[in-house]
Structure formats: C-alpha cells, structure tokens
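Customer escalation, tier 2.

The customer says the design service returned an amino acid string that "doesn't look like it belongs to this structure." They asked us to rerun it and document both sides in this ticket. The original structure tokens are below, unchanged.
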C-alpha cells in the first residue's frame, strides 16, 4: 500500500507537537498529577482505537511475562509527567525542556553499570560537555534570584531521571515493543496516577474554564494519543540516526514557543548550555560508519 505521508514528515510533525506541550499545560489550571492522569486516559482511548482500527493485536501471553516491568515503567512514565508539568510551573518552558533533555546523558552513564557496556572517549566527552551544558542552563550564580527557578530546574532534572528510567527499563522488555508497549505503559500509568490523584488533590475538573478544557483535550488527544500513533508509525520506517536527528525538533520548538508565545526570557548562557546538551547527546547517538579502503 502506498504511504500517504512521508515517515520523516510524520516524525517531524510529532516532534513539533511535543515541543508545544508546555504552552498548553500552562493553560490548564489543575494539579500536575491530575493533568498527567487525564493525559494517560485520553491517550489510552486514542491509541486503543488506533490499534483496533489498524487491527494491531497485542500478544497478552507475551505481555504477561513482562507484566511487572511494564507496570514499573508505566508508573515511572506517570511520575515523569508529573515532574515535567511541575517544572513548567516554576521555571520557563525552555529551561524545563532543556533540563528534561538531559535524560539521554543519564542513560549513557547508567548503561555501563547496568548492561556492562563500555564508555569510550567519545561517550565521556559527550557526557562531560552535556553536563557542562546543564550547569550553564541552571544559571550558575543566578540561582539565588529566586527559589522557584531552582525548584523548576530540580523538577526538570527529576523528570529526566524518570524518563531515563523508562528508557532503561524498556531495554529489559523484549517480548513486546513499539506502540503496544507504550499502550500498556499508559494503562499502567493511569492505574498508578488514579489513586495518587484521589488521595492527594482529588478531581478538580469543575474549576476549568473553556481555555483550560480545550488545552486539556489537546494535550491528551493531540500531544499524546495522535502524536504517539504518528511517532511509532514513522519510527519503524526510518533509520535510527534520522530519527535521532529529527527528535531534536522538540526542544528547539519548545525554546521558540517559550520566547515568542509565552514571552519568557532565555539568557545567552542558557542558550549555549542548551546547545551543548542537545549537540553532544545527538553526537553520542550518531554512529559514524567507517568506509572500507
């Protein structure tokens, strides 16, 4: 069957959507845990419907063997969302997103410990430079300007830690992959977030205005449900390096949205720090093939 859309275009579009999520979350006057809960619920509806429409069956016999890992990774995904949404509340969207993109660096450092993978000189240089980038993003001496900024940075880094946890746990999940794995992780995230929300702030949907409702539906349906369907549909048809390069559209769009639509400032040092994180994590992911003589 001839493809209607280019996989590159689908992946690029999904990354643009991911990059704008901070703008919409800012318009939802709900606790972060509750936003994460509805995001998971709406995504389950869309992705489940997509899998039914495309007749993609999940092998639950295989899933049972890795049910615990799926549950833990889904829980980590839910917590990751909460921390990221909290970061948006306390610091700028650009700083929160760039801190969040420190996750691949955490994965790079953890892999030698967990999977006995060796880190070469290239990996160590990338790790060191990306860490320097994170230090520059925090503002160095400017942290004393306000506790909220520091809180936002810590929430952003915490989100990165939990996202890295999801990535690492996915390396252990061998029997089920792609959109099926993500669907089951969303189900697990919903199962963890529901009691958390009920035991903390409760349900506060009645407090939302029209903009809040529109933003919440957009985050759940577009930024999660539709975008993940496009993401995984494109991913299976693209080389890994192409996907890695296109994935960095997300933080670039987030910075543009932060500065232009939200009117937030970003210092030259923070821009340099962001460039170091994105540039050296991308360099770490790209493998250069040696041409035979």
């Amino acid at each position: 069957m001839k493809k209607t859309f280019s996989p590159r275009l689908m992946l690029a579009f999904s990354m643009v959507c991911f990059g704008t999520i901070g703008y919409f979350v800012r318009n939802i006057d709900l606790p972060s845990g509750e936003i994460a809960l509805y995001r998971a619920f709406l995504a389950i509806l869309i992705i489940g419907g997509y899998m039914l429409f495309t007749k993609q069956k999940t092998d639950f016999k295989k899933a049972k063997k890795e049910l615990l890992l799926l549950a833990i990774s889904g829980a980590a995904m839910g917590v990751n969302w909460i921390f990221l949404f909290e970061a948006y509340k306390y610091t700028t969207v650009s700083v929160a997103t760039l801190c969040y993109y420190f996750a691949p660096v955490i994965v790079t450092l953890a892999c030698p410990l967990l999977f006995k993978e060796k880190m070469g000189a290239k990996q160590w240089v990338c790790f060191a430079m990306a860490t320097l980038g994170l230090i520059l993003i925090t503002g160095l001496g400017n942290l004393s300007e306000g506790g909220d900024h520091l809180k936002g940075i810590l929430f952003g880094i915490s989100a990165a830690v939990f996202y890295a946890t999801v990535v690492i746990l996915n390396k252990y999940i061998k029997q089920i992959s792609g959109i099926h794995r993500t669907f089951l992780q969303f189900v697990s995230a919903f199962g963890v977030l529901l009691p958390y929300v009920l035991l903390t702030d409760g349900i506060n949907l009645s407090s939302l205005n029209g903009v809040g409702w529109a933003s919440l539906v957009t985050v759940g349906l577009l930024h999660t449900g539709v975008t993940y369907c496009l993401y995984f549909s494109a991913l299976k048809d693209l080389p890994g390096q192409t996907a890695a390069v296109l994935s960095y559209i997300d933080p670039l769009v987030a910075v543009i949205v932060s500065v232009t639509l939200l009117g937030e400032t970003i210092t030259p040092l923070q821009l340099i720090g962001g460039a170091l994180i994105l540039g050296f994590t991308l360099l770490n992911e790209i493998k250069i093939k040696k041409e035979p003589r």
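Tier 2 assessment: The sequence is consistent with the input. DSSP finds 14 helices and no strands in the chain. Residues 7-285 form one domain. Sent an explanation to the customer and offered a walkthrough call.
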